[in-house]
Structures are given as structure tokens and as C-alpha cells.
Design a protein that fits this description.
Elements lengths: L2 H27 L8 H51 L6 H25 L7 H14 L6 H29 L5 H18 L7 H24 L13 H9 L2
Helix pairs in contact: 1-7, 2-3, 2-5, 2-6, 2-7, 2-8, 3-4, 3-8, 4-5, 6-7
């Protein structure tokens, strides 16, 4: 099912539930004294709704930052790998040829083996780490004969270190993006309280009241749906693709 259709169904369902609650409260709860409660209910809603809005905004922004960081890390990892390979082109054989072959193999591993695992929320195998360590040892064991090759060897080693750091950041983003259960509890329970508090207000007509409650419920649910979809930067609604590694493979051909 399309993510957009799923989101629409979530919003419609929440709006319908909110409308049903508003209708039942007005029909079965009675209107006596409700308008007199507007002042106290307004103060309570301001505090509860404000705190809930801050929590939703904080979590949503954090998830957006996680997606952006995951994308930046993937590009840094791929670009650093290409830079390390280009630096190794100035080193003597067989390092030059082996480094290019190993870089291509690493790129294929990330794009075709690790990415599907990350989309499913699973931990990739250690193949990529093993390949990266082999490249590091290859560069470290290469004997150089002049200052230019010394500089290129140092550059290749530094770029591989950046590959290591960016790879670690990418894998951490794939595994650490889930919102904690206690936070989900606060988000969902806060939504219920906010929607229920609106029903304490009086003075509006039944139809207007139903529209107000349903819009509030649908809007908050839309934000919760966005948070849910952004938990895994490589799957769900965010879906960071291995474009950087596809481009790197072309440059390493």
C-alpha cells in the first residue's frame, strides 16, 4: 500500500474517531455547566496542549535531522572511498590495481547487500567491515619510493579513516532511529488527553464542535504518522537510497 494512502487512512480514521467521541460527549454528557468550564478547560488545554506540541515538534525535528545525517554520511562515505582510490592510483603496483578492485567490491557490497538489510531494519553482515580493513592493510603495507608517493599514501589512509567514520554513522542511523517506547507512550497518551480536553468546552454548535475535534485529532495523527515513517532513514517514508554509491561505482569503473 502507498505510504500516502496509508497516511490518509490514518488521518481519516483518527478524525472519524475524534468526531464520534465529540458527538457522544455532546449527546450523552449533557450541556449543563459546560460553558462555565471554558475558562478552566482553556487553561488546562493551553498547558497540556502546549507541552504535547513541544514534545511532538522535538521528536519530529530529531527524526528529520536523523534522516539528513544519514544521507550526508552516505555521501561522505562514498566520496571518501573514491578519494582514497584516486590517491592510491599514484602508488606502485599491485596496490594501485588491487585498491580499485577492492573499492568497487566494497561499493557493490554496500549498495546491493547492506542497503536492503538496512531498509528492513536488520543489521548488515560484517563483509563491509572486512573489506574496509583489507583496504587499510593494503595501503599500510605499501612501500613508497619518493615524497609524492608518501603524500598519496598518507592521503589514501586519511580518506579510508573518513570512510570508516561515515560508515559507522550510517549503520548507527539505521539501528538507532527507533523512537523509544516511553516516548511513544507520551506522544499517544498526550494526543488522547488533548483531544478529550477539547470536549470540555461549551458554547459551540454540535457540527462546529465535531469539526474542531476531528481536525485536531487528524492533524496530530498526521504528525505522529510522520514520526513513525521517519524512524528508519533507509526505509519507510524517508527511504534514503544508495545513490551516492551508485555514482561512486561509475567513477571507479
Amino acid at each position: 500500500m502507498s505510504i500516502y494512502l496509508t497516511g490518509i487512512l490514518w488521518v481519516i480514521g483518527a478524525a472519524a474517531l475524534g468526531a464520534l467521541i465529540a458527538y457522544l460527549v455532546r449527546r450523552l454528557g449533557g450541556a449543563e455547566g459546560r460553558e462555565a468550564n471554558n475558562g478552566a478547560a482553556g487553561q488546562a488545554f493551553t498547558i497540556v496542549g502546549g507541552l504535547h506540541a513541544v514534545l511532538v515538534a522535538f521528536v519530529l525535528i530529531s527524526q528529520f535531522d536523523l534522516v539528513s545525517h544519514a544521507q550526508d554520511s552516505s555521501y561522505l562515505e562514498a566520496d571518501s572511498l573514491v578519494a582514497a582510490t584516486w590517491a592510491a592510483d599514484s602508488l606502485p603496483e599491485p596496490t594501485k590495481t588491487r585498491m580499485r578492485e577492492m573499492s568497487r567490491a566494497y561499493t557493490v557490497t554496500v549498495a546491493e547487500q547492506e542497503w536492503p538489510k538496512m531498509r528492513e531494519g536488520e543489521t548488515p553482515a560484517d563483509t563491509g567491515w572486512t573489506q574496509l580493513d583489507k583496504m587499510r592493510r593494503l595501503i599500510a603495507q605499501t612501500e613508497v619510493v619518493d615524497d609524492w608517493q608518501v603524500d598519496r599514501k598518507s592521503e589514501a589512509a586519511n580518506q579510508l579513516w573518513q570512510v570508516y567514520q561515515a560508515r559507522q554513522a550510517r549503520l548507527s542511523a539505521a539501528s538507532d532511529g527507533d523512537v523509544e517506547g516511553v516516548v511513544w507512550f507520551a506522544l499517544i497518551f498526550g494526543t488522547l488527553i488533548s483531544v478529550l480536553l477539547v470536549n470540555l468546552f461549551g458554547g459551540t454548535q454540535l457540527r462546529a464542535h465535531i469539526v474542531i475535534v476531528s481536525v485536531l485529532a487528524g492533524t496530530i495523527t498526521l504528525l505522529l504518522f510522520a514520526i513513525y515513517q521517519l524512524q528508519n532513514p533507509f526505509g519507510g517514508g524517508a527511504r534514503v537510497d544508495p545513490v551516492a554509491f551508485t555514482a561512486a561505482l561509475v567513477r571507479l569503473a
